[in-house]
């Protein structure tokens, strides 16, 4: 009874192939673990798979004996789907769903690159917490680096749940090296994330400094709500600056700097030191010191020229980082336009000092 079923399955494989009727009689039998025999054509097999071609070209032991190729260790229906693909270059979503992993293994063993691509895609779309460890092992065995990496990332992202699966426990018992490799990958992913976060934090600091630099020029060139060039009327509106979010803070700092008693008494004032550094930083990146309205710009430039030889490396690095942050931020068109406007104002006015009101 069972045999009849198997035979009908095997003939179904071939009859499902559109051009099968034009082919000669099958001359090879594929035999599966479950005893299913699938009659196939050696010419087709040899054309699609170099490994099967080799097997077919081997001389037979007995001249009269029928050629049989065993494909064992995978479900019968997976072998049927495999043979179907050899004939039609197609396999259904249902077959992929049920036998994607087996088909991937077969495509690797019998060297069928198109099926391998199809399976890599199909299997990677169906990755779950439950199967990811098995697929990882298969991807390594079948030499599919993309799928391997995708599995690694998935395991790293859902490690707590993956750790609970049968697949993980089995792998721990049977392949401790792979476990080590996975743990190393997770560790590296974590430190890469930390490095990226640190880098982002640094970038945002340099960007803030770069914006503070633009804001300084804005205040001392065109003036803003409470601070500006001495011969320019304060703006009528009392609302906050609409150009720079930091403008109010920078203006407060400038006012403090102008009036602070502790600074003039030689005491260490944190806010004054900060302002001093902003002014020095401005001078370091200012490329128009002769027409610049920012206080102390030229003085700092002169001092820097005198001390050129002894300029400290950390400061130079800071200047470079702020400049590059500025370059990145000024890629946006809006900012470029604002800079052009700023340059125009700088060219048309000459201010001697600045007002506080
Ligand atoms: Zn402003
Ligand atoms: Zn102060
Ligand atoms: Zn300047």
Structural class: mainly alpha
Mean pLDDT: 83
Sheet with the most strands, sense and barrel status: 3 strands, mixed
Characterize the overall form.
rod-shaped
Q: Helicity, in percent? A: 55-70%
State which percent range the strand residues make up.
5-15%
Taking strands numbered 1, 2, ... along the chain, how are they ordered across the largest sheet? 2-1-3
Q: Assign the CATH architecture of the largest domain.
A: Up-down Bundle
Low-confidence stretches: 1-9, 342-354
CATH superfamily caption of the largest domain: TAZ domain
Bound ligand species: zinc ion
Rg for CA atoms = 37 Å
Provide the CATH topology of the largest domain. Answer: CREB-binding Protein, Chain A
Helices, by number, come to 17
Domain module count? 2
Order of helices and strands: HEEHHEHHHHHHHHEHHHHHHE
Q: How many beta-strand elements? A: 5
Explain the overall architecture.
With 357 residues, the chain is mainly alpha-helical. It has 2 domains: 126 residues, Potassium Channel Kv1.1, Chain A (2-Layer Sandwich), CATH 3.30.710; 155 residues, TAZ domain (CREB-binding Protein, Chain A). It has 17 helices and 5 strands. The strands form 2 sheets. The protein has a 3-stranded mixed beta sheet with strand order 2-1-3. Strands 4-5 form a two-stranded antiparallel ribbon. Strand 1 and strand 2 form a beta hairpin. The N terminus is likely disordered. The site of one zinc ion (ZN) has 7 residues, from helix 13 and helix 14.
């Amino acid at each position: 009874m069972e045999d009849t079923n198997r035979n009908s399955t095997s003939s179904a494989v071939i009859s499902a192939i559109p051009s099968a009727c034009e082919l000669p009689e099958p001359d090879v039998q594929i035999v599966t673990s479950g005893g299913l025999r699938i009659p196939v054509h050696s010419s087709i097999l040899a054309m699609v798979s170099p490994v099967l071609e080799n097997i077919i070209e081997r001389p037979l032991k007995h001249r009269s004996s029928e050629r049989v190729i065993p494909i064992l260790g995978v479900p019968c229906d997976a072998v049927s789907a495999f043979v179907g693909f050899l004939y039609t270059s197609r396999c259904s979503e249902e077959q992929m769903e049920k036998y994607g992993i087996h088909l991937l293994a077969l495509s690797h063993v019998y060297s069928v690159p198109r099926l391998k691509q199809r399976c890599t895609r199909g299997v990677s779309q169906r990755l779950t917490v439950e199967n990811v460890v098995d697929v990882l092992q298969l991807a390594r065995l079948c030499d599919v680096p993309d799928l391997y990496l995708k599995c690694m990332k998935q395991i790293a992202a859902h490690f707590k749940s993956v750790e609970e699966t049968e697949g993980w426990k089995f792998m721990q018992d049977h392949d401790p090296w792979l476990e080590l490799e996975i743990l190393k990958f997770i560790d590296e992913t974590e430190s890469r994330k930390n490095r990226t976060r640190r880098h982002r934090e640094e970038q945002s600091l340099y960007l803030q400094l770069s914006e503070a630099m633009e804001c300084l020029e804005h205040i001392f060139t065109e003036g803003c709500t409470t601070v500006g060039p001495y011969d320019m009327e304060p703006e009528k509106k009392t609302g906050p600056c609409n150009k720079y979010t930091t403008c109010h803070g920078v203006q407060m700092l400038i006012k403090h700097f102008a009036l602070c008693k502790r600074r003039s008494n030689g005491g260490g004032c944190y806010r004054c030191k900060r302002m001093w550094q902003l002014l020095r930083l401005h001078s370091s990146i200012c490329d128009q010191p002769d027409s610049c309205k920012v206080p102390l710009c030229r003085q700092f430039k002169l001092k820097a020229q005198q001390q050129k030889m002894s300029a400290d490396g950390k400061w130079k690095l800071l200047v470079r980082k702020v400049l590059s942050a500025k370059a990145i931020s000024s890629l946006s068109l809006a900012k470029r336009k604002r800079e052009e406007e700023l340059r125009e104002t700088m060219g048309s006015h000459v201010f001697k000092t600045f007002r506080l009101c």
